[in-house]
Amino acid sequence: MADERPWKLQADGILITVRLTPKSSKDQIEKIGTQSDGRPLVLARVRAVPEKGAANKAVAALFAKALSVPKSSTEVIAGSTARIKTLRVLGEPQDLAKRLEDHLS
Question: Where are the bilayer-spanning segments (predicted)?
């Protein structure tokens, strides 16, 4: 369990489990946390409000910037109306995982 990460490598990128807090004072990827069932996730905050997809666009842009990929390579694929979301980031999986690990350390 200690080695589990909140992302899964895919052939064309990675999937990241994120707990998003909208209407925050700043846009920030904070740290790795855990869900109530013990599964890991990345805690993130955005200034955008959760209306008309604004917070989803903001979290996708936040991760795109942190991972140095185009905004078009990042999208929310699950949990669009929930706080816990799954993001897909397209790119070389090992490289993306290393960048995310470095960003969180």
Answer: none
